[in-house]
Amino acid sequence: MKHKLLVLALLIIALLAFCTLSSAATDPIVCTMEVSPSALSEPGDVTVTITVSNSGDTDMTDPLTLFDPTSQVVTDFGDSGSVTLKAGEVQTWTGTWSVNQRTLENGQIVFFVKYKLENDDGTTTSKSQPIRGTIEQSDYTAKIAVTRTITPLTAREGQTVSVIYNIVNEGTVSLTNLKLAENKDILADTLNITDELKEGETAQFELPVVMGTKDLTSKATITYTIADGTEEQTYDVEEQVITYGEPAVIATLSSDAKGVMMNGTIKLTLELDNTGNVDYTDVRVTDPTLGDVFTNQTLPAGEKLTLDKEITLTQTTDFTFEISAIDKTGTEVIFESNTLSLIAVDPDKALSLTLTLTSDKTEVYSTDEVVKFTVTVLNDSEVDATDVVLSQAGTEICTFTSIPAGESRTFSRDVTLSMAGKYQFTAEGKDSLENTMTFESNVLQIAFLEPTPAPVTPNPNITATPEPTFVKATYPKASDPDIAALPKLIRIFFYPLMIAAAGLLVVALVILLIATKKRTALKKASEKAVDHLERSNHRDYVVPADEQTPPEDTTQPEAQAEETETEEKSEDEYLSEDELPHMKYVRNAYQIAGRENTANENPKDEFEQTPGQDDQEPWDVEPNYQTKDDDAPFRRRTSRVSPFAKKNDQDSQQDKSADHDDNP
Question: pLDDT per residue over 98-121, tens digit each?
Fold first, then answer.
């Protein structure tokens, strides 16, 4: 039984399948789908193109309806989503479909159509045909993020509008051949952005356009190619209208300086000029950085409103104030001011000048008195100061073209003061922002004193002392009776003694000079004589080595006569008048040596000498003795012989003669 039921079920299924195939084969409706791009790395939008055609010979009598994957009618297909196709007619639909993760994982997008077909027997059959498109999930991500900024959104004629694009590659692959096609109002031709935009890189560019007399429209399409494929990708930027306007209120934002030191204060000034004929109330001024700047202001037609705001600038900032107001119709209008850029300067780069004021006096006694003022300007900052103007009481005194960092300049001037009071100088210089900065000196007080008035009570008559006259000084004579006894005594006795002593002193000085001169001359001669003495290994003053022994004189009577005559002469007679001083010491040496020899040879004769006989002979008489050449190897260079040496030689000769007589 079970087997029969199973066979019956299979037959029914086969019959139904056959009928379905038969009906499909006769279905004239043909549907196709194209998906672009055909691959996504993550959920995103794709472009779907569906083509529906009637390939039969019979026109459709009932409309065909297109449904999306969510079973919603595609309203922009045909007439509100339906179309009645004639034989051979083709209907195409192109639209954007957002692919979710589930569809991406299934790998296909399924649309379907519903329609009715007329059978041969005149009946109709309802049909539903799926339309499938293939979508693949890639293993890479191609994604860009585009930001467009338009400033300002409302512009006057001739005003420049900036359209700025920021394109960021947020995918995992590089993008190539990036191009931008803007609306003709903004850009006439296609712009080549870059040849390659790598992962994480940003491309930024600005399109300036001048506002005319009508609105401008910005709408862009960015195309690019994924580096791993050749299929071109597109990115559309939505449309944005830039409004042309003739604003009734002109907002001008300014400041009292281009910038200040960090954390310094600066004053902002907003000037609102209502050039129209409409009054504005509830005027509100805001700024993205400062928040609410001014509130609850009114601006009548044809008038101006000036608003000041002092702020603390901590960093370099661009300020653009937005003004919103309510007109008489109750409509809110919005205006924007110009953009004001303020620079915050590092305090180390700030200009600083120190002024020191001095004067040569602090008190004056008349208006004609001159006071000398000296001003020293020191640049104690790290930047140079230019065009430094020195002034006093609003009057420019002098100008320093430049004061380098760390240097100073000094100015002096003699001034005739018209009045007393406090005096102060000021210096104005330009900093790195070309701002004029003012510096003040110390305050100097100049006092005006009245001269001391003449006394009220007149002075008594005073006889002036006559001028002294100078008279030549005179001294009284000693006989003057006014002189005391003691001074007279000193005058009489001691004055002659003093004169005599002075004369003797002069004579003594003359004698001393003469003696000194003579002694000096003798000393020089003695030094010359000493320098000529022969230096040898042996020196005998008794028998000089350089004197030759004269031949023995055989005439005895003549020798004895000479000896007798010589003995009678005194020593002083044989001394030369020009005997040099050093010869005295040589003569003494000869005398001592002769006495010793005589005492040794004839002791008795030492005491039996003839009275009055002198033991000296003239030096120029040569001794009469014989000696061998070997016994006297040295000779004196002079023929002068000591008298005492002569006497010793003569005694020796006499002894020899006596011996010879005794022993014939």
Answer: 998 888 888 899 999 999 888 878
Paired tokens of 83: 């179309």
CATH number at residue 224: 2.60.40.10
Find the CATH number of the domain harbouring 69.
Answer: 2.60.40
What angle, rounded to 10 degrees, do the helices at 556-568 and 643-662 form? 140
Q: Considering only CA atoms, which of 215, 236, 238, 202 is closest in space to residue 152? A: 215
Q: Are residues 338 and 286 in the same domain?
A: yes
Burial 500-521 (b: 16+ CB within 10 A, else e): eeeeeeeeeeeeeeeeeeeeee
In a domain, 14, yes or no: no
Tokens of 215: 């609105």
On whether residue 525 sits in a domain, the answer given is no
Asked which of 448, 479, 501 is the last residue of a domain, the reply is 448
Owning domain of residue 616: 556-662
Task: Report if residue 492 sits inside a domain.
Answer: no
DSSP 531-593: HTSPP-S---SSS-TTSPPPPPP--HHHHHHHHHHHHHS-HHHHS-TT--TTHHHHHHHHHHH
Q: What is the pLDDT of residues 354-374, one digit of tens each?
A: 989 898 888 877 777 788 889
Query: So what's the pLDDT on residue 280?
Result: 85
Q: How far is 48 from 264, CA to CA, in rounded Å?
A: 61
Whole-number pLDDT of residue 615: 45
572 class by beta-carbon count within 10 Å (0-12 exposed, 13-18 middle, 19+ buried): exposed
366 and 424, same domain (yes or no): yes
Question: What's the pLDDT score for residue 509?
Answer: 94
Give residue-wise pLDDT tens across range 59-98.
888 899 999 999 999 999 988 889 998 888 999 999 999 9
Regarding predicted confidence, which is higher, 553 or 468?
468
Q: Mark which of 323, 345, 367 sits at the end of a domain.
A: 345
Gap between the Cα atoms of 129 and 114, Å rounded: 7
Q: What 3 state SS string does 618-661 have?
A: CCCCCCCCCCCCCCCCCCCCCCCCCHHHHHHHHHHHHHHHHHHH
User: In terms of domains, do 132 and 33 share one?
Assistant: yes
Contact criterion met (CB below 8 Å) for 387 and 427: no
Q: pTM for this structure?
A: 0.29
Q: Are residues 429 and 367 in the same domain?
A: yes
- The answer as to whether 489 is a domain residue is no
Number of domains in the chain: 5
Q: Which residues of 335-370 are buried (b: 16+ CB within 10 A; e: fewer)?
A: bbbeebebbbbeeeebbbbebebebeeeebeeeeee
